[in-house]
Every structure is written in C-alpha cells, then in structure tokens.
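ok so i was messing around last nite and threw this chain in just to see what happens. nothing serious, just curious
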Amino acid sequence: SSEEFLAEPDSWLMEARRLGGESSELPTKRTIAFVSYSGGVGKTVLAMDTAAHFARRTNLPVCLIEFTYGESAVTALAGADIPALFELATQPDVDPYVWNNVTLIPMDYDNSRDLSIQLLGKYLKDVMREHVLTVIDAHYPHALIGAVRDEIDRWYVVATPRPDTVENAEKLKAELGPKAVVVLNQKGGVGDSLSLSGIERAVELPVVKEADRWKGDLGKKILFHTYGDRTWKAYEPQGFLSGLLGRFSRSKEERQ
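result:
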C-alpha cells in the first residue's frame, strides 16, 4: 500500500532493485574487526552502527563479538541486561540477545578469561559460521582474540584527529600487517585536515550527532570499503526520489 511504502521507502526500493536484478551478491562470509591501542576513539559505536546498517540493508544474518577487559560497552549501548560470552559458551540452552537484528556476543572478561582458547574458538566460530557478516569490537592487544584471529579478513584500526591516537594507529597498522587499514573517526573541520595531511587512511568519518541512534551514517562508509563500491551500492537507496522519500519518512517518525 502507499502507506506501507511511505513508512519504509528505502526498504521497498531496495527490494525492487533486488528483484529487478540490480543487486550484487555479497561474499558468503566476511569478518571485520575494529581495534585500537587508544580508548575513546569510537570503536564500539562504529562496530554497532556497521552491524545494524548491514542488517537493515540486507536482511542477512550479522553478529557482533566483543573483546574487552572491563565493563561491556556493547551491553551498555544496547541498553539491556543480556547474556554474555561465558554464559553463552558454556550453556547451550542460552541464546544470544538480538538487537536491531544483530546477534550480540558481549564479553564478561572476569569469567571469560577462565575459558580455554579451544572452547572459546569453537563456540565463536560456530556463531560466525551462521552469519554472513561478523563484526568484532576489540581492545588490542587482547589475550582472547587469538580464538578468532585467523578468521579476520580486515582490521579497521580506529583513530581520531588526536595526535596520540594517530600515532598509535600507525603503529598498530604496521603490527597487524597487510590486512589492516586506518579509519579516521570524528574528523572535524579545516584544522583537522591540515594537521592530518600526509597520514594514510582508508576511511574518513565525520563527527556525527546522535551516532547512537544507529542511522548508518558511519556504518555505510565502512560497508562500502568492506565490500567495494560496486557491490555495496546495490544495497543503498539510489537517486533523488529515494532520498526525498527517506527524508519524508524520517520526518514523519520524528513527529510521531
């Protein structure tokens, strides 16, 4: 109906393109990891926005796995009391929490560090096998990431315009090797551009207000880089009509 279309125009237009043969097939499996030596660079927000945007655009299974040493940022941002890694890995009858169509595997490090790498790896690889995209949010280095290290296709080393985070990102990129690229997050105006000249980065992300509303403004750029412009373009709304209707729909939701 017209009402259904206006409520979610982007989804309907994407499905029409898919049925019309304009969509490109994604790889059967891809694993990406957001890492940093530095705190406060926005790794978790990037990981969650990327996973949520992938789920919204593709309707394919996606999971988010966290490696942390302290409190779970994923649990805090999801806004719910949810099962964590130790419980999930040791109790087969416990199912992961699904947030915005994303399977969440947050870490409770105090308990999870008692798990063997073999048990941890078996559980996580079973989860990853059931999902088309796995997004990892990790403190680096982390004692337990070895359980899935060989599965990672792309390391996104996150930095902000702060000089210390940029220096750390360049060092970590060199440590991780050819699968690693730098993501510059929270880039501001001309001053940041001048101070960052000459620093190689694969993805540049602006400051986004209310990034925790998960609109995909950040995740979209990551997914374009992950899958390539030609492939991911088929999953994004195209053209003036789609953009106009999308803005109308968002305005209607905000009024309600």
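not much to say yet. DSSP finds twelve helices and eight strands in the chain.
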